[in-house]
Amino acid sequence: MTATVLPMTLVDRTEELGEELDRLRSEVIAMRGADDARYIRTVIAVQRGLEAGGRLALAVSLMPPAWCAGTAMLTVAKILENMELGHNVLHGQWDWMGDPAIHSTTWEWDFASPADAWKRTHNHLHHTYTNVVGRDRDLGYTILRMSPEQPWRPVHLLQPLYAALLAPVFEWGIALYDLEADSVVAGRKSVRSFLGEIANLGRKAVRQSAKDYVLFPLLAGPSALPCLLGNLTANGLRNIWAHTVIFCGHFPSDVRTFTEDDIDGESRGQWYLRQIQGSANFGGGFLLHVLSGNLGHQIEHHLFPDLPSNRYDEIAPRVRRLCGKYGVPYVTGPLWRQYLSMWGRVVRHALP
């Protein structure tokens, strides 16, 4: 489904909605302080503790209980590092603290894609042109057809298969996607720039692979093989979880897509409206939200991508009330329902 041109009366109301959301944003910025800093530092401490515990257990993982415990701890540590830390730190959510160790310009995450490449495609392109066909490359990641406005090709018949195969290797798919090879073909990026980015990715890929698949297995000595398998399992599970969270926040059936004409002359209020209509939430408790990087509040994240993630749960009821007040659909539901809806969309748009 695509957005339609709004009548003038609704445009006026959209600007009122935008003003109320601006006030909400200002409130949260004014409230940021010690509690928020304590939250993120606690998450970092827990993540590092889990990673250290997981690495130590895998070092003696010839014993099956140690392998299970080590793999579980390392999986959770990698999920926390990617979702609640890496993703949100790189959005600049904690830059206000002035701590160079938790800053968007210095953080390099435990993920195949170099931070700078990801920030360019995600923070700028995706969050500026959310779900705009032809502008938001995240709308299907250039390989999936997720809107009827995207041209259909015979290869899309296979997209349910390659969407599923993408999940366990998601970090590598994103790393290749962030190279923007299609921009080189279209003439929007120089070959020299592209080759430089390939070199940066190569260096990052070597470091990531050497750390998980060479260094730590060698340090494990007799437990080298089970340690290697534990690292492979942790990375695969982390990738599947990231794929699930991200796809459920962007591709359920009720999430709208837009054309370039829809954003011509777009105002601040209309940008806010597009973020709400182009995102979906899923419900859950505190632990689920932390493990998903608080992206179960995808609507709030798209409205305010640089606000501290721990604030999304607090402001979500207010955003939902504002949507009700202005008659804007607020797409939310249990994770399992959003997951099934997302796969329904993948299958539906595989067909011409």
Automatic annotation (TrEMBL):
<dbReference type="InterPro" id="IPR005804">
    <property type="entry name" value="FA_desaturase_dom"/>
</dbReference>
<protein>
    <submittedName>
        <fullName>Fatty acid desaturase</fullName>
    </submittedName>
</protein>
<dbReference type="GO" id="GO:0016717">
    <property type="term" value="F:oxidoreductase activity, acting on paired donors, with oxidation of a pair of donors resulting in the reduction of molecular oxygen to two molecules of water"/>
</dbReference>
<feature type="domain" description="Fatty acid desaturase">
    <location>
        <begin position="69"/>
        <end position="332"/>
    </location>
</feature>
<dbReference type="Pfam" id="PF00487">
    <property type="entry name" value="FA_desaturase"/>
</dbReference>
<dbReference type="InterPro" id="IPR012171">
    <property type="entry name" value="Fatty_acid_desaturase"/>
</dbReference>
<dbReference type="GO" id="GO:0016020">
    <property type="term" value="C:membrane"/>
</dbReference>
<dbReference type="GO" id="GO:0008610">
    <property type="term" value="P:lipid biosynthetic process"/>
</dbReference>
